[in-house]
C-alpha cells in the first residue's frame, strides 16, 4: 500500500504542536483537548502570529461557498493584511481560537468587541469537517473567554441560507433574538450560562464522549502491535486472547522485528502502515520509548483508538511521566483516544463484537453488567470472581494509569448503552471529582452504579496516576457517593453481593423486610443485620421448623408476597435431612415469579445464582427474575440494605436547586475583585467585609462589638439595651470544655462588670484594639448551636459541610459533606444524616428547631462558594438555631487568588 505523501511528524512538545515563541498575554489556559461529535479528538487553542502559514493553508482548503458565507462576497484568498489581522489578536477585545488535528487547522472562531459589553462572533470550518460539532465547541470556548473580559452579549451576521451556522446559535441553549436587515439575519444572545445552555452542553458532552468510547469497544478490525510468537510474553497473550475470544472482525499481528507472514495463524506485518485494510483499534504492547512512533504510525493509518498495555510510563517516575504525556498528547492531537497505558485491556461481549483484548484468559459470559477498573492486577481476579458468581458482563475496561480514558468516560458510554443495566466501578483515584459527581448522578438516575473506592482513609494514589491531592477528610468521598446516588461498598465481596441483586431483582418500594427461614440461628443473624442497616422487619419472621417441607415454605412465601406491608423478602434455606432442595427451589421460584418485590436468599449457602433458582436468558446466563443466593444471611441483608437506600434516592421528591432570587451575584463578584486588588496575595476578611460579602447572599450576622475594658463593655451593652453576652473570641479559647468562654444573660451594668472581672481573670485582656479578645453581642433566641462551613479544595472544588457545634462533634468527625450545587434533597439529607441530628428534632423533650432555616443557610453558603472560586474558606462558626429562626453569631472568611482553576469547567474539554 502506498503511504500518504505527508506523514504525521512528531511535534516538539509532548502533545499537539504549537508555536514556540508565544506572544505577550497568550492565554495558555484556553488550550484544551476536545471530543468532537463523531467521538474523535482534536486540539483547541488560541491563535498566534506564527500560525500565518497554517491559516493560509486552511483557507485554501475551504470551499468558495463557505468563504462566501463567512465574508458575504467572493473572497478567494487572504491578503497579507488579512492574515496579519486574523492572527494578531490581543486575547481580550479580539480573540481567535483554532481547532487542529495533527498539524492542520480545521476550524477557527473569533470574537471582536464592538461595545463595552458586546462582541461580534464569527466562525469558519473546513468543509470536510463540517457537521462534527466544531462550531458549537468554538462557541462555548469563545463565550467563556469573552465572559472573563466583561463581555456579556454576542452578535453575529448570517446569510439566510447558511442554515448550519444559524443552527449553531439557535441550538446553543441561549435565548436567541433574530432580526432580518438588508438581506442578512442578525443574531443576538446573552452568553451568561443558563440551566438550558448548561444542559445542552452536558447532553452534547455525553453523546460525544460516549461515541469516543464506542469507537474503542466496537471495532471491526484490530491490530496487536508488539505481537509475538514467544510463549509467556504480553504480545503473545494479547494476540491469543483476541483470537480465541471469537472476535468476528479482522485481526492482524504487528511486529517490527519479525519477517514472518503470520504469527499463531494471524496475518503478520512489520508496521501497521503495511496493512492493506482499515484498522479501527490498535492494542499496543511495545516498549514505552517506542510508543510515540507507534502513535504516529497509527495516525497515518487512520486508527480510531489505542489500548496501551505497555508499562514503563508514569508508574516508574518522572521520565516515564514525560513519555506518558507525549503518548496521550500525540494520540489526542491526531484524533485518537487512549486506554492506559499500563492497562489490562478491554472486553466487549456484545453480539457481533466478542472482543477480549486483555491479558486475562477468562472471557466472561455475556450479561448486563458494565465494569470499569483501574488496577490491571486486580482486574484479573475480578473477572475470575465474576465468573464464579455467575455474573455476565456487557463490557469491561481496565484503564491502568488512566492517562486519558477514565471512569467518567465509561459512565457516559454506559448511560446510553442498552446492553448495560448495572455499572460497577473499582476506583483508585478520582481525577476530576466534580465531573465524576455530575456524570455519576446523571447515570445513577437511570441505572444503578456500585462503586468501591480504595485509599479513602489514606488518600493514597497509585503510582502512575496524577491527580490533585485533596485535603478533605475521607468522609467526603462517602458523601460524594451518596449525593450522586452511587452505591458505595467497602470490599470486593460486597461489590458483587450488591451487583448480584441489582442484576436480577427489581428495586424495593420501601424498607420493610419479611424473613422466611428454617433456621432459628440464621434468622437471628438476619434480624441483627436488618436492625444495624436501618431496615424494618415486616411483622414476625416466618421461622419454620427444621422438618419443614417444600409445601410449608410455599405457604409461608405466598403469605409474605401477598402482604402489602412487605417490600422485600429474605429466604433462608438450610438442608434438613428430610427436605428436598430442588422442591423448595421450585416453590420459591414460583412464588417470586411475577412479583415486584425483590428476593434474596441463603440457599444451601450457595454464593451465586443457583441453577435451581435461575431464569435462563437467551445466552444461557441468568436473566432478570433469577434469585441470588448468599453464603450468609448477613451478606444477603447487607446487599438488600444498599439496594433499598439506592431505591430511596431514586424516589426522592422535590430534588431541585432553589432559585434564591435575592442573591446579588454581580455585586459579590465585584466585591471579590476589589478585595483582591487591595490584597493581591489574599487575606482573611475583617468584620465589615464579612458582613458585606454575606449580605450579597442575604445572610445576616448578629453584630458583635470588640471591647477593651469594662467601661467599654458597659457602654456598648447600654447602646444595645442590655440582654447581651460577653464572649471571648481568641482562637485558643474557643471550644475549650474546661473554660466558659461566653457569659450570658447580662441584664445591667452590675452583671457586665461581674462578667468582665470573671472573664478577664480567666482569659486575660488584650491591649491592642486589633487583637481585642472580647466582644459584646445581643442575646440570640435560645437554641441548638450548629456550624456550616465551605472550603475550596484543589481536587473537589467547593465543598460544604454541616455539623453541630462542640468538641465531641469535632473528635468524632460528625459532619456531613456535599458539593454544590445543592438540591433541596441534598440540603435536607445533610441536616438529617449527622449522628447528633436528634438534638435538632426535640431530643428528650426539648423543642424542635427550625430545620428550614438551616437548609436555607446551606443553600446560600453553597451558592456563594459555587459562584466565587476565590472564597477559599467560609465558616459560619456559630449558628444558633431556635424553634423559628437561625441566628448567625460568628463567621470567618478568607479570599485568595485561585491558583488552580476548577476542573469541571462550563465548556467541554478533556482533562
UniProtKB/TrEMBL annotation:
Residues 1-10 have a biased composition (Polar residues). This is GNAT family N-acetyltransferase. It comes from Kribbella qitaiheensis. The keyword Transferase applies. GO terms for molecular function: acyltransferase activity, transferring groups other than amino-acyl groups; ATP binding. PANTHER family: COA BINDING DOMAIN CONTAINING PROTEIN (PTHR42793), PEPTIDYL-LYSINE N-ACETYLTRANSFERASE PATZ (PTHR42793:SF1). InterPro entries: Acyl_CoA_acyltransferase (IPR016181), ATP_grasp_subdomain_1 (IPR013815), CoA-bd (IPR003781), GNAT_dom (IPR000182), NAD(P)-bd_dom_sf (IPR036291), Succ_CoA_lig_flav_dom (IPR032875), Succinyl-CoA_synth-like (IPR016102). It comes from the Bacteria. Residues 42-192 form the N-acetyltransferase domain. Signal peptide: none annotated. Keywords: Transferase.
Amino acid at each position: 500500500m502506498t503511504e500518504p505523501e505527508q506523514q504525521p511528524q512528531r511535534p516538539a512538545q509532548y502533545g499537539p504542536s504549537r508555536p514556540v515563541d508565544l506572544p505577550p498575554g497568550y492565554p495558555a489556559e484556553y488550550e484544551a483537548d476536545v471530543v468532537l461529535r463523531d467521538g474523535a479528538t482534536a486540539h483547541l487553542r488560541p491563535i498566534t502570529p506564527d500560525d500565518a502559514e497554517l491559516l493560509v493553508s486552511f483557507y485554501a482548503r475551504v470551499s468558495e461557498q463557505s468563504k462566501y458565507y463567512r465574508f458575504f462576497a467572493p473572497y478567494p484568498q487572504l491578503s497579507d493584511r488579512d492574515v496579519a489581522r486574523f492572527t494578531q489578536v490581543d486575547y481580550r477585545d479580539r480573540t481567535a481560537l483554532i481547532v487542529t488535528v495533527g498539524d492542520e487547522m480545521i476550524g477557527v472562531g473569533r470574537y471582536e468587541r464592538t461595545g463595552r459589553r458586546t462582541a461580534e462572533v464569527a466562525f469558519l470550518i473546513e468543509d470536510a469537517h463540517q457537521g462534527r460539532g466544531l462550531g458549537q465547541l468554538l462557541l462555548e470556548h469563545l463565550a467563556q473567554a469573552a465572559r472573563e473580559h466583561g463581555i456579556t452579549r454576542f452578535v453575529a451576521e448570517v446569510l439566510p441560507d447558511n442554515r448550519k451556522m444559524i443552527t449553531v446559535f439557535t441550538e446553543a441553549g441561549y435565548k436567541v433574538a433574530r432580526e432580518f436587515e438588508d438581506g442578512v439575519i442578525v443574531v443576538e444572545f446573552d452568553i451568561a450560562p443558563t440551566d438550558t445552555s448548561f444542559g445542552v452542553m452536558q447532553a452534547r458532552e455525553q453523546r460525544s464522549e460516549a461515541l469516543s468510547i464506542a469507537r474503542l469497544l466496537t471495532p471491526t478490525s484490530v491490530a496487536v502491535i508488539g505481537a509475538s510468537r514467544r510463549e509467556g510474553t504480553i504480545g503473545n497473550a494479547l494476540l491469543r486472547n483476541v483470537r480465541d475470544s471469537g472476535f468476528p472482525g479482522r485481526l492482524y499481528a504487528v511486529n517490527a522485528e519479525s519477517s514472518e507472514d503470520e504469527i499463531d495463524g494471524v496475518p503478520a506485518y512489520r508496521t501497521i502502515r503495511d496493512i492493506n485494510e482499515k484498522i479501527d483499534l490498535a492494542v499496543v504492547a511495545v516498549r514505552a520509548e517506542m510508543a510515540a512512533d507507534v502513535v504516529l504510525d497509527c495516525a497515518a493509518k487512520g486508527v480510531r483508538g489505542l489500548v496501551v498495555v505497555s508499562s514503563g510510563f508514569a508508574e516508574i517516575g518522572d521520565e516515564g511521566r514525560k513519555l506518558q504525556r507525549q503518548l496521550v498528547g500525540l494520540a489526542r492531537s491526531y484524533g485518537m483516544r487512549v486506554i492506559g497505558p499500563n492497562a489490562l485491556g478491554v472486553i466487549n461481549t456484545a453480539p457481533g463484537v466478542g472482543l477480549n483484548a486483555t491479558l486475562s484468559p477468562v472471557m466472561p459470559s455475556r450479561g448486563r453488567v458494565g465494569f470499569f477498573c483501574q488496577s490491571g492486577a486486580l482486574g484479573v481476579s475480578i473477572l475470575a470472581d465474576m465468573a464464579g458468581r455467575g455474573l455476565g458482563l456487557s463490557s469491561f475496561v481496565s484503564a491502568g494509569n488512566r492517562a486519558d480514558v477514565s471512569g467518567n468516560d465509561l459512565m457516559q458510554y454506559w448511560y446510553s448503552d442498552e446492553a448495560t443495566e448495572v455499572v460497577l466501578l473499582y476506583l483508585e483515584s478520582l481525577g476530576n471529582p466534580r465531573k465524576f459527581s455530575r456524570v455519576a448522578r446523571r447515570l445513577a438516575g437511570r441505572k444503578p452504579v456500585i462503586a468501591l473506592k480504595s485509599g479513602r482513609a489514606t488518600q493514597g494514589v497509585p503510582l502512575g496516576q496524577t491527580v490533585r491531592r485533596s485535603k478533605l477528610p475521607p468522609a467526603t468521598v462517602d458523601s460524594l457517593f451518596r449525593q450522586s446516588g452511587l452505591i458505595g461498598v467497602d470490599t470486593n465481596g460486597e461489590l458483587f453481593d450488591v451487583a448480584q441483586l441489582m442484576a436480577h431483582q427489581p428495586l424495593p418500594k420501601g424498607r420493610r423486610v419479611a424473613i422466611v427461614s428454617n433456621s432459628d440461628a440464621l434468622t437471628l443473624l438476619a434480624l441483627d443485620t436488618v436492625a444495624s442497616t436501618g431496615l424494618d422487619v415486616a411483622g414476625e419472621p416466618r421461622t419454620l421448623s427444621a422438618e419443614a417441607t417444600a409445601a410449608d415454605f410455599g405457604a409461608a412465601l405466598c403469605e409474605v408476597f401477598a402482604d402489602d406491608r412487605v417490600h422485600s423478602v429474605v429466604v433462608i434455606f438450610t438442608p434438613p435431612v428430610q427436605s428436598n432442595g430442588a422442591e423448595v427451589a421450585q416453590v420459591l421460584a414460583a412464588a417470586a415469579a411475577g412479583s415486584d418485590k425483590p428476593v434474596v436468599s441463603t440457599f444451601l449457602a450457595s454464593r451465586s445464582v443457583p441453577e435451581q433458582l435461575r431464569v435462563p436468558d437467551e445466552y444461557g446466563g441468568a436473566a432478570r427474575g433469577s434469585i441470588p443466593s448468599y453464603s450468609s444471611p448477613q451478606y444477603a441483608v447487607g446487599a438488600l440494605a444498599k439496594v433499598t437506600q439506592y431505591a430511596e434516592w431514586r424516589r426522592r421528591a422535590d430534588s431541585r436547586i432553589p432559585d434564591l432570587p435575592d442573591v446579588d451575584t454581580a455585586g459579590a463578584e465585584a466585591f471579590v475583585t476589589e478585595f483582591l486588588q487591595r490584597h493581591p496575595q489574599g487575606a482573611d476578611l475583617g468584620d465589615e467585609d464579612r458582613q458585606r460579602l454575606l449580605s450579597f447572599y442575604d445572610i445576616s450576622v448578629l453584630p458583635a462589638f470588640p471591647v477593651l475594658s469594662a467601661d467599654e463593655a458597659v457602654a456598648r451593652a447600654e447602646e444595645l439595651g442590655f440582654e447581651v453576652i460577653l464572649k471571648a473570641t481568641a482562637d485558643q479559647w474557643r471550644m475549650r470544655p474546661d473554660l466558659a468562654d461566653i457569659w450570658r444573660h447580662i441584664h445591667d451594668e452590675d452583671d457586665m462588670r461581674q462578667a468582665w472581672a470573671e472573664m478577664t481573670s480567666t482569659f486575660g485582656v488584650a491591649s491592642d484594639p486589633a487583637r481585642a479578645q472580647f466582644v459584646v453581642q445581643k442575646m440570640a433566641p435560645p437554641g441548638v448551636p450548629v456550624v456550616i462551613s465551605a472550603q475550596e479544595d484543589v481536587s473537589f472544588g467547593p465543598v460544604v459541610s454541616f455539623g453541630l457545634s462542640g468538641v465531641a462533634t469535632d473528635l468524632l468527625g460528625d459532619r456531613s459533606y456535599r458539593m454544590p450545587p445543592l438540591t433541596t434533597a441534598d440540603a435536607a439529607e445533610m441536616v438529617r444524616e449527622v449522628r447528633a441530628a436528634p438534638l435538632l428534632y426535640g431530643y428528650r423533650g426539648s423543642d424542635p428547631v427550625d430545620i428550614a432555616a438551616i437548609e436555607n443557610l446551606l443553600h446560600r453558603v453553597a451558592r456563594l462558594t459555587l459562584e466565587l472560586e476565590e472564597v477559599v474558606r467560609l465558616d459560619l462558626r456559630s449558628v444558633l438555631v431556635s424553634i423559628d429562626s437561625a441566628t448567625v453569631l460568628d463567621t470567618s472568611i478568607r479570599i485568595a487568588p485561585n491558583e488552580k482553576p476548577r476542573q469541571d469547567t462550563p465548556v467541554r474539554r478533556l482533562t
